């Protein structure tokens, strides 16, 4: 997975949540146990173009959304690269969603 990902998909999700519920950024952040500044940045006027991958995955997990659903091309590229590098990768879950399902 790359170090940074486009922030637009997360912004769109939080914007839809904000429009649907009317909750301000602080309430959304508190409800999902997220950094209030991150949510405010995503909903603000000066939206960052990119977000750190570790932050993006954390946000996705806390709002119960699979990162592969938001950035499918990144997930496929990472899976392909892993299979090319590791002959045993076929036996290893390559998507975060499958890994979480198997973990439960």
Task: Report a brief summary of the structure.
With 104 residues, the chain is mainly α. It has seven helices and two strands; from the N terminus they run E-H-H-H-E-H-H-H-H.
User: How many DSSP-defined strands?
Assistant: 2
Largest sheet: 2 strands, antiparallel
As a percent range, the share of helical residues equals 55-70%
Taken together, the total number of domains comes to 2
Determine the number of helices (DSSP H or I, runs of at least 4 residues).
7
Oligomeric organization of the protein chains = single chain
**N- to C-terminal distance:** 23 Å
Largest sheet: spatial strand order = 1-2
SSE pattern: EHHHEHHHH
| Residues in β-strands, percent | 5-15%
Structural overview:
The protein is mainly alpha-helical. It folds into 2 domains: 1-65; 67-104, no CATH class. Helices cover 62% and strands 6% of the residues. The chain has a two-stranded antiparallel sheet with strand order 1-2. α2 packs across α3. The relative contact order is 0.15. Mean pLDDT is 77; it is low at 80-94.
Question: What labels describe this entry?
Answer:
104 residues, two-stranded antiparallel sheet, mainly alpha
Summarize the SSE layout with pairings:
Elements: E1 4-6, H1 8-21, H2 25-31, H3 36-43, E2 50-52, H4 53-62, H5 67-70, H6 72-85, H7 96-103
Antiparallel strand pairs: 1-2
Helix pairs in contact: 2-3
């Amino acid at each position: 997975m790359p170090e940074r990902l486009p922030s637009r998909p997360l912004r769109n999700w939080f914007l839809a949540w904000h429009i649907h519920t009317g909750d301000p950024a602080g309430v959304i952040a508190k409800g999902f146990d997220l950094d209030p500044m991150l949510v405010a940045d995503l909903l603000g006027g000066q939206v960052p173009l990119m977000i750190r991958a570790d932050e993006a995955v954390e946000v996705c997990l806390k709002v119960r959304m699979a990162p592969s659903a938001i950035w499918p091309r990144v997930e496929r590229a990472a899976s392909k690269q892993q299979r090319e590098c590791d002959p045993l990768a076929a036996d290893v879950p390559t998507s975060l969603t499958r890994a979480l399902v198997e973990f439960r």
